[in-house]
Design goal:
single chain, 232 residues, alpha/beta, Alpha/beta knot, Trp Operon Repressor, Chain A, 2 domains, 3-stranded mixed beta sheet, 8 helices, 33% helix, elongated, binds ligand 9D3
């Protein structure tokens, strides 16, 4: 069982997102447990303040360290990364992180039992969070989001679908390792002729050797055209 605890100022953002498809099935099967927590629950002051102005001046607000340290200490059992269990990862979603890859998703699905996701916001998060608490700082790509919440959903989805048993038995795992690093070949379903746009004859031939060969070639071809960087 893998457990996710998401620390966010917008817990409602996650309300239904994990109730569909593979993630829903994985939860129902007891493969994963997911909870989103309001950072304000770890504030001590009357107004539940989670942010403050940056030292040295500048625009915007910075997430304060105290509530994040308290939340992580509760979930990870320690407030220093060297004191976590080996199977605990505390991940800060931030534009400064290393870009999420299939390889990191595989690492997490294989080696983690407990993942704490900290969603950044505003102009940033007090640097002492990254210094002391965070085992992995992760971005989902080189574009600007308004916060870490959508990135947390992306990371969680990529990890959960790799948990053994999360995909329907005979599904994509085999196919994925076979065509690793390539885009999928084009897929077609009925009708074979739609407004004059025809499905390639080979796919209707029933010749499975020919079909496999065509698919391999088509995947390579599509990758060369659309994502030549993947072939390097
Ligand atoms: C105005 C602040 N920006 C200065 C360049 C920095 C900034 C801080 C926080 C920009 C965006 C954000 C909010 N984004 C995330 O927290 C985030 C993110 C992203 O923006 N892109 C890709 N992956 C991620 S993971 C978290």
């Amino acid at each position: 069982m893998l457990r996710f605890d998401i620390i966010t100022i917008f817990p409602e953002f996650f309300r239904e997102i994990f109730d569909y498809g593979i993630i829903r099935r994985a939860r129902a099967a007891g493969l994963v447990e997911i909870e989103a927590h309001d950072l304000r629950g770890w504030t001590a002051d009357k107004h539940h303040v989670v942010d403050d102005r940056p030292f040295g001046g500048g625009d915007g607000m910075v997430l304060k360290p105290e509530p994040i340290f308290a939340a992580v200490e509760q979930f990870a059992g320690a407030a220093r990364r060297e004191d976590y269990g080996a199977q605990t990862r505390v991940i800060l979603l931030s534009p400064q992180g290393r870009v999420l890859t299939q390889s990191l998703a595989g690492d997490l699905s294989k080696n983690a039992k407990h993942i704490v996701l900290i969603c950044g916001r505003y102009e940033g998060v007090d640097e002492r969070v990254a210094e002391a608490l965070v085992t992995d700082e992760v971005s989902i790509g080189d574009y600007i989001l308004s916060g870490g919440e959508p990135a947390a959903i992306v990371l969680l989805d990529a990890v959960v679908r790799l948990l053994p048993g999360a995909l329907g038995s005979e599904t994509s795992a085999v196919n994925e390792s076979f065509s690793e690093g390539l885009l999928d070949c084009p897929q077609y379903t009925r009708p074979p002729d739609f407004h004059g746009m025809r499905v390639p004859d080979v796919l209707l031939s029933g010749n499975h050797g020919e079909i496999a060969r065509w698919r391999r070639e088509a995947a390579l071809d599509k990758t060369r055209r659309k994502r030549p960087d993947l072939l390097k």
